């Protein structure tokens, strides 16, 4: 069968010109006369361009806010567990909690053609609808599966894996209330992440149900890092706010806050009780061990990757997948509770 070279010879043009007209190249600089000559030569020789290969690589792209967090390293381990078993590749992008950087990562992925994308987004809440429509048009409508982790996304075409942040934080605060605490400070997470709002609303709901007035003076804002928790706690103490317990939007801020409290001579939990959120393994290595909400981070990553794998095989998947969270009571909130080290998972 004649090939492209024979077509080039018959049309008396270069091989690159034939490629531009019949192949994947651009033909905007090829004149109409030359284009007709190439098409005629191909028809005379019976040449048909080979079908284009499947453009998507066997790759899952993962976009997370920060890999140095043990929360997200556990999520990434879950994805990697599936990727390795299925002999796929994994691309990882770190956004540093910057929405603009997240968008740049997605723009780069437009040219990578992965099978699927796993995204923990830091899109501001007010921009989510327009942003999700763009993702749908750019990726989902082109057959690239998108799984959002950590929060629910209801737009058609998306898949999501998450815990109920509102109910879980409410459960954490209800635990403190059950111990007799009425003045409970709150360390708010990164304002760029909408799940921070969900957890904060859970805190307020627990207070309301217990008939405890909401006091804005007991709220301090962090960014999910231990340093921000430390600074927030020092500010609460320096301003002389009266409280007997602290609920934190994540474990890392809670750990920083405990350090600040102990530096000022406070006993934990006798003077101030603490509870975090995530159940990172490091939370058992502090003294006292941290009460928290357990989030199955490894399973979150593994399920997100499995969904993409199933969809590639034509297997129907549930679009919204809620993982079970649970309350873990340790000595930072209840003096009679366990203070043992957790030696696995970190």
Describe the structure using short key phrases.
11 helices, 346 residues, alpha/beta, four-stranded parallel sheet, elongated, 14% strand, single chain, six-stranded parallel sheet
Précis, in short:
By secondary structure, the chain is an alpha/beta fold. The chain has helices spanning 4-11, 15-22, 32-45, 70-85, 99-109, 128-138, 165-178, 194-209, 226-238, 251-263, 297-312, and strands spanning 59-64, 89-94, 116-119, 145-149, 159-162, 184-188, 219-221, 245-248, 273-275, 292-294, 320-322, 326-328.
The strand count comes to 12
Q: What is the topology, as strand order, of the major beta sheet?
A: 2-1-3-4-5-11
Content-based structural category: alpha/beta
What order do the helices and strands follow? HHHEHEHEHEEHEHEHEHEEHEE
- Sketch the major β-sheet: 6 strands, parallel
Poorly predicted regions: 51-55
Helix content range of the residues, please?
40-55%
Shape: elongated
SSE topology sketch:
Layout lengths: L3 H8 L3 H8 L9 H14 L13 E6 L5 H16 L3 E6 L4 H11 L6 E4 L8 H11 L6 E5 L9 E4 L2 H14 L5 E5 L5 H16 L9 E3 L4 H13 L6 E4 L2 H13 L9 E3 L16 E3 L2 H16 L7 E3 L3 E3 L18
Parallel strand pairs: 1-2, 1-3, 3-4, 4-5, 5-11, 6-7, 6-8, 8-9
Antiparallel strand pairs: 10-12
């Amino acid at each position: 069968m004649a090939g492209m070279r024979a077509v080039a010879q018959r049309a008396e043009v270069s091989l690159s010109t034939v490629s531009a007209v019949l192949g994947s190249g651009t033909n905007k600089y090829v004149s109409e006369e030359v284009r007709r000559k190439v098409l005629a030569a191909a028809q005379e020789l019976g040449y048909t361009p080979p079908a284009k290969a499947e453009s998507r690589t066997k790759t899952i792209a993962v976009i997370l806010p920060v890999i140095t967090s043990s929360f997200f390293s556990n999520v990434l381990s879950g994805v990697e567990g599936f990727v390795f078993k299925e002999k796929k590749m994994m691309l990882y992008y770190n956004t540093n909690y910057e929405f603009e950087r997240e968008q740049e990562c997605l723009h780069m992925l437009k040219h990578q053609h992965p099978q699927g994308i796993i995204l923990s987004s830091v899109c501001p809440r007010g921009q989510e609808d327009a942003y999700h429509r763009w993702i749908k048009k750019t990726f989902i409508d082109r057959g690239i599966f998108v799984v959002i982790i950590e929060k629910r996304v209801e737009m058609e075409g998306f898949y999501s894996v998450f815990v109920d942040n509102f109910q879980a934080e409410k459960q954490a605060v209800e635990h403190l209330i059950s111990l007799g605490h009425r003045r409970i400070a709150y360390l708010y997470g990164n304002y760029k992440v909408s799940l921070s709002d969900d957890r904060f609303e859970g805190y307020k709901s627990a207070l309301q149900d217990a008939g405890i007035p909401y006091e804005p003076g007991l709220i301090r804002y962090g960014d999910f890092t231990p340093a921000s928790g430390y600074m927030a706690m020092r500010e609460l103490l320096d301003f002389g706010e009266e409280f007997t317990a602290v609920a934190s939007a994540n474990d890392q801020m809670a750990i920083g806050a405990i350090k600040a409290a102990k530096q000022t001579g406070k006993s934990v939990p006798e003077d101030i009780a603490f509870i975090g959120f995530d159940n990172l393994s490091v939370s058992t290595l502090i003294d006292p061990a941290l009460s928290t909400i357990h989030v199955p981070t490894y399973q979150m990553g593994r399920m997100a990757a499995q969904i993409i794998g199933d969809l590639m095989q034509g297997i129907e998947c549930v679009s919204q997948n809620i993982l079970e969270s649970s309350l873990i009571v340790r000595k930072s909130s209840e003096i009679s509770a366990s203070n043992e080290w957790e030696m696995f998972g970190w």
